[in-house]
Amino acid sequence: MTLYGDRLPPADDRPTVKVTAVSWPDDAPERAVAPGPERPARGGPFRRGRLLLAGGITAAVLAAGVVGAGAWAYAGDVPRGTSVLGAELGGRSRTDAVRTLRAELERRSATLNAPVAVTVGERRVELKPADIGLAIDVEATVAAAAAVRAHAVDRLVGSRAVDPVVTVDDTRLAAALNRAKGSQGREMTMPAIIFSGTTPKPVYPKPALTVDQPAAAAAVKAGWLAGRPVTVQLVEKWPATSEEEVDRLVTELAKPAVAAPVTVSTDRGSVTVPPAAIARSLRFSADEAGRLTPRIDLKRLRAALGDRLAKIEIEPQDAGLTISGGKPKVVPGKAGRQLDATAFGRDLLAVLPKTADRTVTAQLKPAEPELTEAKLTELGIKERVSTFTTRFTGGLSSPRSQNIVQAAKDVDGTIVAPGETFSLNAHTGERGYDQGYQDAPTIVNGKLVPGVGGGVSQFTTTLFNATYYAGLEDVEHKPHSFYFSRYPAVIESTIYWPELDFKFRNNTEHGVLIDTAYTSNTITVSIWSTKIYDSVKTEYGPRRDVTQPKTVYLKPGPDCISAAGGEGFAQDAWRVIRKDGKVIKREKFSWRYAAEPRFVCGPDPNA
C-alpha cells in the first residue's frame, strides 16, 4: 500500500484514517564495531522498510476496525442512524421498520388526519386528507430508508433523516381544487378555424386561468407534512397554437383550399370536389393542449358530395336478417370498393394549399361490410321474444297513417348489438318532407296543431312497448301530456325532433332485431333475439287525483283542430320480470296526465 503523506489515494472512497509515526525497539543490543566504513544511520533504507511495514500493519488494524464499524452501521435492512418523522428505523429489518413507522403514524394520526387549509386564488377551503387520497406510503418510505448508504464511520457518530414518501390522488385533488377555484378561473379558448360558407373565420386562442396541478400537488403534500397552510396561485395556461399560427393556417391553407375545386381521379373515373364540399370537410381540430391540426373529415365529405361518389365507389352492404316462415333468415352482405380514407385524406390535404395542379389520384380498395354473416350468426338472433300492436284510424291514405308507416320502414330490420343504445331520433334523422313525412296533427304547447311527422308518436309507443316486454333497458322516453285510449296508460311514449327522443339499450348478451309490419289500421313491432326471461308483465296501481277537462274555444280556420277532451289522472305501473320461476325485477313507472281541454273551433257562446 502506498501512502500519500498521511492520506490514502484521493480516488479511494473509504474513510480517511490518520496514521501516527511510532518508534520501534531494536531486535538486539548494539555491539561495538571496529573502525571501518561509516554505518548507515538508524533511519536508513532497512529501517524505513521496517517502519513502512509497521505502518501497513497499523493501517490494516484500523481498516479492520472500520470494517467492523461498517458491519455494525449496516446491521439490519435499514442503516443505523436512519429516522423518518423522528422514528428511529436504523438497524431494523424491513418488516420491523414498517411496524415501527406505522406505530409512529398512528401516534400522529390526529395531526395527519386534520384538514389542510388551502387558499386557491382568493378563496380558502379545508381539504380532508382522506378525501383527496393524501397519505404516507409506508412500504415505499421504508424502502427509501433502506436504500440510504453512507460512510461507516459517519454511521458511528451521525444520523440521517429520510423524508416520507407522500401520495395523493391527483384526480380527486384536481377536482377539489377546481371546485375551490370556482368562478375565479376561466376556461381556455381553443384556437379554431371555421367556415361560413366558403369563407374561413379564425378563432383566436385565449389563456385559461387555472391551477397548476403538479405544483399544487407538491405544495399540498409539503404543507400537510409540515402542518402549515397552503397557498395555490392561479396561473395562465395558453393553448399550444398561437394567434400568429392561426393566421398562418388561414393564409396558407384555409383560404387557398376553397379557392378552386379539386379533381379526384380513380381507375373508375373522376369526381370534382367543389369548394363548398371542401369547406364542409376541412376541419381544424385542437387537442387538449390547444394544438391546432388540419384534417379531412371523409364522412362529412361523403355527405357533401352526395351521390357523386357513387360514380366511382361501390358501397359495402351489411349482412341482414329477414323473417321468413316465422324464422329469421340471414341475408348475406356484399363487399364494396371505396376510397382509401387514410391515403385520400392525406393526399387531398396536400393539394389544398396549391393554386394549380389540384388533382388527387386516389386508390379504391376493397371495403368489407361491418356486419358479416359470421358475426351476425354469433349474435344469437333466433326467436321472437316480444311483439306489440296498436291500432290507428283513417286507413293508409291518411297523412298520419303514412307517417306511421314511414317510421316503421325506417326502423325495419335494424340490428342492435349487445351493449348498444338505440336512439329513434338518431336512426331516422329529422323527419321532414324530403324524408317522406307529411303534415298531420301533433301536440304543441298543449293543443293539436298541424305538423310534419304527426303520428310518429304512435309508432314510438309501439316500439317502446315491444322493447319493454322484451325486458330491454329503458334509457329515455316521455309519455304524452294527455291520455289517449289507443295507448296503454303510463307505458307509452311520444317523440319530437330534436328535443324528445326514445332510447333503449340492449342489455343482453345477444343481438336484437327490430321487425315491423303494418296493415291498413294497425302497426306491429316485434323484437327477435334469444329469450332469456320466463315472462314480462305489467301490474297497474289505481288511477288517482282525477281532474276534469275545461272547454277552450279557438278561432275557426284550417289550422284549428277540435278535440273532445279527456280526464287527467296520475297512475303507477310496475314492470314485473320473471326468470326461472321467480320475480327477478320490479321496475316502477309513474306518470301524471293533464286533463286534455275540450277544444271547440268557434266563438264562445257565453262571451
Give a written overview of the molecule.
With 607 residues, this protein is of the alpha+beta class. Among the domains are: 44 residues, no CATH class; 127 residues, Roll (Ubiquitin-like (UB roll)); 223 residues, no CATH class. It contains 15 helices and 36 strands. The strands form 14 sheets. The chain has a four-stranded antiparallel β-sheet. Strands 31, 32, 34 and 35 form a four-stranded antiparallel β-sheet that branches. A hairpin with a 2-residue loop joins strand 34 and strand 35. Helix 2 crosses helix 4. The radius of gyration is 42 Å and the shape is extended. It starts with 44 loop residues before the first helix and ends in a 6-residue tail after the last strand. The relative contact order is 0.06.
Largest pleated sheet: 4 strands, antiparallel
User: Count the strands?
Assistant: 36
The unreliable regions are 1-54, 57-70, 150-157
- Rg, alpha carbons: 42 Å
In angstroms, what separates the terminal alpha carbons? 126 Å
Class based on secondary structure composition and strand pairing? alpha+beta
Beta fraction: 25-35%
Helix content, binned percent:
25-40%
Mean of pLDDT: 85
Overall form: extended
Strand order of the largest sheet: 22-30-29-23
Q: Can you count the helices? A: 15
